[in-house]
Amino acid sequence: MSNELTQLVDLLEKIKTEVGKVIIGQREVIDRVLMVVLTGQHALIEGVPGVGKTLLVRTLAKTLGGRFGRIQFTPDLMPADITGTNVFNMKQNEFVFNPGPIFCNFLLADEINRAPAKTQSALLQAMQERMVTIDRKTYTLPASFTVFATQNPVEFEGTYPLPEAQKDRFMLKIAMSEPDRDDEMNLVRRTLGPDPPEELLATDAVKCVVGADGLVALRKCLQELTVREEIAAYALDVVRATRSHHSVLLGGGPRATQSLILASRACAAISGRDFVIPDDVKLMAGPVLDHRLILQPDYEIEGLSAAEVINSILQDVAVPR
């Protein structure tokens, strides 16, 4: 392993240590959030209220030295509330741009499915191009701009399903479940102690490990990982198999293939390897494809899930040696 990759692995461990000071348990979630940041992509986080979705993103922003922004999505939220707008300044006798909360490094789109598609679409250009166009003028977002959108998986009253174009821009769907008993007991003890997890962010207990410039360098180090042609072809075949599966109405597109390759490479780095193996592809196929697949209505009525379809495809596609 090269010196650059060794430094990458060491930095990832330091980041996980700092995040772990606030977020109790959720080791797999922390790993996958780091994969998203490493690859410069975006994530959809699903979890019931109280599992720490907002706290996770706030902690990550402090650890990575980025500016944190939060938008509470509601039915009356307008696109201009996200991107910003031009306001007429009476003293200067001209319009002045008032930037919205989207101008940050790490944006938490809280309960994104509570706003209609018109409002959700305000994120499309920003997520794809890291730019925002307002009144025919384009503004550039930070290179590390990352969207973490949250959803409640059990409450659908008053919500709007995410359009396919919106879902396809999220590299991963991360399921954030309740902690196990030991972790939750640890949370209880810390809540009763002098420094509850939520208050640690206001202290110097959580340190910044790497700044915005360092994050760009980390992403370049990731490109040194070896991805054999056979592994890339395997990931491609897995995604293409979703398009012809008898139970799938709409399978993964080309962006899903790119996401699976990027996620597999980041998974190898998180695991401390400088090469990608088929197990990386298998592990990331679910988080990458689950939110992208639309099943045939009759299979959906029968209770078939996207996860079951993905597992079936992984069993059918030949694994490279």
How do the helices and strands line up, and which of them pair or pack?
Elements: H1 3-20, H2 27-39, E1 43-46, H3 53-63, E2 68-72, H4 79-83, E3 84-89, E4 94-99, E5 106-110, H5 117-120, H6 124-129, E6 131-134, E7 137-140, E8 146-151, H7 164-167, E9 172-175, H8 181-192, H9 197-200, H10 212-222, H11 229-244, E10 248-250, H12 254-270, H13 278-289, E11 294-295, H14 297-301, H15 306-316
Parallel strand pairs: 1-8, 1-9, 2-5, 5-8
Antiparallel strand pairs: 3-4, 6-7, 10-11
Helix pairs in contact: 1-2, 2-12, 11-12, 11-13, 12-13, 13-15
Textual characterization of the structure:
It is a single chain. The protein is α/β, with parallel strands linked by helices and 321 residues long. The chain has two domains: 21-223, Rossmann fold (3-Layer(aba) Sandwich), CATH 3.40.50.300; 225-321, Orthogonal Bundle (Helicase, Ruva Protein, domain 3). Helix content is 46%, strand content 15%. The strands form four sheets. The chain has a five-stranded parallel β-sheet with strand order 2-5-8-1-9. Helix 13 runs antiparallel to helix 15 (306-316).
- How can the largest sheet be summarized? 5 strands, parallel
DSSP strand count: 11
Please mark out the parts with pLDDT under 50 across 5 or more consecutive residues, or reply none.
none
CATH homology-level superfamily of the largest domain: P-loop containing nucleotide triphosphate hydrolases
Q: What's the order of the H and E elements?
A: HHEHEHEEEHHEEEHEHHHHEHHEHH
Structural class: alpha/beta
Radius of gyration, rounded? 20 Å
Strand content: 15-25%
CATH topology term of the largest domain? Rossmann fold
Residues in helices, as a percent range: 40-55%
Shape: globular
Q: State the domain count.
A: 2
